Amino acid sequence: MSEQNPVFIPGPTNIPEEIRKACDIGTMDHRSAKFSEIINPALAGLKKILKTETAEVVVFPSSGTGAWEAAISNTLSAGDKVLAAEQGMFSQKWIEMCRRHNLEMQVFEVEWGESCPVSAYAEALKADTGHQIKAVLVTHNETATGVLSDVSAVRKALDAANHPALLLVDGVSSIASIDFKLDEWGVDIAVAGSQKGFMLPAGLSIVGISQKAISAMETATLPRFYFDLREMMKHLSSGGYPYTPIVGMLNGLKKSTEMLLAEGLENVFARHHRLAEGVRKAVKAWGLEMCALREEIFSDTVTAILVPDGFDGTELVNHAANKYGVSFGGGLGRVAGKVFRIGHLGSLTDVMALSGIAAAEMAMVDLGFPIKLGSGVSAAQEYYRNSAK
Hints:
By secondary structure, the chain is of the alpha/beta class. The protein has 2 domains: 2-12 and 265-387, Aspartate Aminotransferase, domain 1, CATH 3.90.1150; 17-262, Aspartate Aminotransferase, domain 2 (3-Layer(aba) Sandwich), CATH 3.40.640.10. 43% of the residues lie in helices and 15% in strands.
């Protein structure tokens, strides 16, 4: 019966029954007018979640990685200079993608557990008087380390330097769970995926596109076909699609946006913060530390927890799965074996979070971790019962 247990990985996340049912529809002629009754409300809902009135939004059949590729291939040309920071596995992968597209990378390598180096970005942008830097990449929420970066501060650095570079933001594990303000922050391309805060299976990538980014497409020369944003926008504007869409998933996305907006975005963000705080109270009670180095950069969607010296985070994850049927995230890249991750985003409640904390606690005690059984659960219970409305 372990398949009934919720997952505590930072994506794919738990799928509400209403969304599962919405995805389960019969074959539809996606060239018919009925398809527009699915795609148009879904796109309108996405704009509200991204907090934009000026950007266009498109949805590709792919994971978030496809949206990364769309972001760079539609706005840049081979040899263009891109500013980025490597601060975890996913920022690292986006940088590698840029290199494979023959982009010139200026990369700041920071400690995994640290946020985007805004001051270093500011200096680089100020020094670039010839405006050779064409785009700036920011990973809003680094899923591998549980670190949140300040996108608005990067926009301020661009503005202070009067720099015209595009601001491209990976919001895969933040959008729909943590506040994201595309218009206010001056984000040119925002990237998201269906399998995180949107509570859907993996399979849809979401791209928010500013008017400035749309203008950049006129001179960009990197090749694109499947991920051609212009082609996608042209068809979506009339309620169509440039190729065969995943109709069931798009209907699920329509339901997802309806559910998020019905809950109220500020309530969604507050719920995720409360869930995260409960997990962090548990970590503190265990006497363990988080991979994120400072409280102000703690993620509200995933907590990466450092295991004590002599212990293996991967062994812990495997043990929890094999004995208790509960899934946690393992360490990735440089922190493989050094951390385990508790995802607390999407369709999750205080009570569900407590079950994950309890399962992690049991697994750690089984493996001889120096923690007291019940300590983390008690700390989280105390927080949740005093913070619940």
